[in-house]
Design brief:
- By secondary structure, the chain is α+β, with helices and mostly antiparallel strands.
- The longest helix is centred in the first third of the chain and has 26 residues, at 16-41.
- Helix content is 41%, strand content 26%.
- It has a single domain (14-217), classed as Chemotaxis protein chec (3-Layer(aba) Sandwich), CATH 3.40.1550.10.
- α1 crosses α4 (122-141).
- The chain has helices at residues 16-41, 57-68, 98-106, 122-141, 161-164, 199-217, and strands at residues 45-47, 51-56, 73-82, 86-94, 148-149, 153-160, 174-184, 190-197.
- The model is unreliable at 1-11 (pLDDT under 50).
- Strands 1, 2, 3, 4, 5, 6, 7 and 8 form an eight-stranded antiparallel sheet that branches.
Amino acid sequence: MHDHSQSPVPSELLSDDQRDALQEIANIGMGAAAAKLAVLLDRFVALSIPRVALVERNQIRTQVELMLGANRRFTAFRQSFRSDIAGEALTFFDHDGTEELRQAIYGEGQQHAQPQADVPSEWLFEVANLLTGACLSGLLGQLGRLPNFSVPRAIGTSLYAEDIVDLPKLDLDRALLLDINMRIEHSGFKVHLLVLMADDSIERLGVALDDFLDALSG
């Protein structure tokens, strides 16, 4: 008998086996993204275990704050992805570690053009695109999907988690939150990739995960 008291969404949207499989393939997708970031930086990139939460719309904000942590500032981007499984990917760069990331990419002695106030640097758009594309292509590719991506759009700079959640106008009643985060070893830099999916895509994801599990057992 499994305890679903931690999940505010009816358990039939994703079974325990489906959630375990999603966490496993998310880990592989995250590994692909981290490998690309490691090559870019020539640094080791440490990974967390992906976290999965099924929540009602009015609980998304609270869950995101729990995932990101209170009193931390972020530069944030959003990017849509679409196959028959669609959703929004939100990338959060830890504000205090962004300069370390810039130095890792360009070198400490390199000057880089300063963006306008509240506009992220161009290179951050590129890193957000790299991470989202590698991670979600790796994740959905294991389910036989090849997603299309929109161009990353900036949500803002120096934002707190409570500010970020209100900005993307997401048309959903319930959501699957998939939190993938990584950090540069021996650095203060961290990045979170948060994937949101609505009910119809969660149902399609469940079918795809069943097919994935059947193929493994076959």
